[in-house]
Specification:
alpha/beta, TIM Barrel, 8-stranded parallel barrel, 38% helix, binds 6-O-phosphono-beta-D-glucopyranose, beta-glucosidase activity, 6-phospho-beta-glucosidase, GH
Amino acid sequence: MKKYTFPKNFMFGGAAASSQYEGAYDQDKKSLSVADYKIYNPNLNRSDTNHNWLEVSYEEYNDIKNNNKAVFPFRWGIDFYNNYEEDFKLFKQVGINTFRTSISWSRIIPKSDGVVNTKAITHYKKIFDCAKKNNIKLVLTLCHYDYPIWLLEEYNGFLNKEAINKFLEYAKVVLTEFDEYTNYWIGFNEINLTLHSSYTGAGFLIKKNDDNRLEKLYNAVHNQFVAQALCVKLAKEINKNNMMGSMNAAAQTYPYSSNPLDSLANLKSSQINNWFFYEVIANGQYPQYMLNYFIKNNIKLQNTNDEINILKNNTVDYITFSYYSSTLNKCKSYTNNDILIESGLSNPHLNSTEWGWNIDPIGLRIFMNELYYRYKKPLMIVENGIGVDEKWDYNKNILNDIYRIEYLKDHLTNMLLAINEDGVNCIGYTIWTAIDLISMSSKEMSKRYGLIYVDLNDYGIGSGERKIKESGKWFKKVADSNGEELWK
Ligand code: BG6
């Protein structure tokens, strides 16, 4: 067995997102974001994979706004905003050479008037200088599930084309002000999640029984595509060395059985939920299967000729994605050439987490191959990790997260096989997460992903103290050995 190592200049590190770890929701003139209105539910059923964890409907949003007893975990996060110096030192201790994080739009531009918050700019510069001081490269996402509340309330988010202008106004500030800190940028986090949640994915509200739900979702996605493409253009104008990417959640799927109808179901489902998104950002056009799907489902896209050219001429420089798990697609019925698909099914060959996420390291290798050979653009895995409810053992002063080491080892070795045996060009990997933070879907602090433990509970109570888990020590060995440690 060959012991492959990381390619030269490989970006290896950790990830996080502003709304999930910064906290300080009322500091330095920040205004609220959609994440700040998400509430923690102590009675949630963790294994309920049918529940739409990310959505907040029009009706629910109005209830939340009048609820002054609710627990809003994203408002306090883990207070990285004030702890960044200590946190960067710890990142260094767990072997991180690259940190993927996001900037908070509602900090930079707190109101719809477009006035820039200089306090936030100054503070982010301090944070990024600290990364530099610790020799940590940055990959910066412009919007990671935290649309400003003003964008939602005054424009209804990306359902409104005006959001494109607002996003570019913000992007220009960020790309100019933080130009010296990185060349690696990502426009939006997981655009394909907009299909599952208008609120989290695109910052707008839909009523529970809206008849035009699908049409609204696809129009918002289209507006995000246009904003993303214009952002590619803008990034190059500001600095020709900028690499602008866009991110999707990898929807790795398999047919439920060897029945060709299950393969057809898998093909159709992955076109719509997965490949279509890469086609637009990497190839610059809507694939014909999608245009046919729109006609069939009576979806009218507000798509101008100008926008078609913008998409075509401004594709991403590299492709970033998150990878956590895989699912199965099954043909439920097939009548008059019409297929009904059952998606999201569990795989009997795989173990899964407490939240029902299948663990599939080989799926990562398959997905990297499929993605790279379709578009031949460099890949970066910007999220991959396992969420576990775990506790620090204060008697032994340790958190022996052996399951995380196993998870990472299996995924990283498959990544190295994709690179070295299959010829995939992958330039980086950042684990989700460098440090424990609030879970986006379940809003729990106790769904922990980090290499570094943070002593806080679901209500934000605790000392906030940070401690390195066993996985953090192991991750450092992997980094120092340039990957050789993975084969032990
Ligand atoms: C990704 C998101 O989809 O998954 C992150 O970009 C999120 O924001 C991560 O935290 C893990 O999901 P969750 O819901 O367990 O936090």
